[in-house]
Amino acid sequence: MTALARPTEGRMIGGVCAALARRFGTSATTMRVLFVLSCLLPGPQFLLYIALWILFPSEDRTRTW
């Protein structure tokens, strides 16, 4: 498994779904579809997405030279 960091390429909005897809070995499209489907259920999905957007570092900030 890779570290949770929002990738610089392949982002749609914040890169949260792309980061989770990379972490769990699925496609970003699959994660995005699952997120949209989860929004049909009651709950704080949008707040969770925003919180993960803030908590996951951007990939360009996590690189070590």
Word description of this protein:
The mean pLDDT is 85. Helix 1 crosses helix 2. This protein is an all-alpha fold. It has four helices and no strands. Helices cover 54% and strands 0% of the residues.
Supply the key terms:
single chain, 65 residues, 4 helices, mainly alpha
**Unreliable stretches:** none
Structural class assignment:
mainly alpha
Main sheet makeup: none
Q: Number of DSSP helices?
A: 4
Indicate the overall shape.
globular
What order do the helices and strands follow? HHHH
Distance between the termini: 22 Å
Record field, number of beta strands: 0
Over the alpha carbons, how many angstroms does the gyration radius reach? 12 Å
Give the rounded overall mean pLDDT. Answer: 85
Strand content: under 5%
Q: What's the multimeric state? A: single chain
**Helix proportion range:** 40-55%
Map the helices and strands:
Elements: H1 16-24, H2 28-38, H3 45-55, H4 59-62
Helix pairs in contact: 1-2
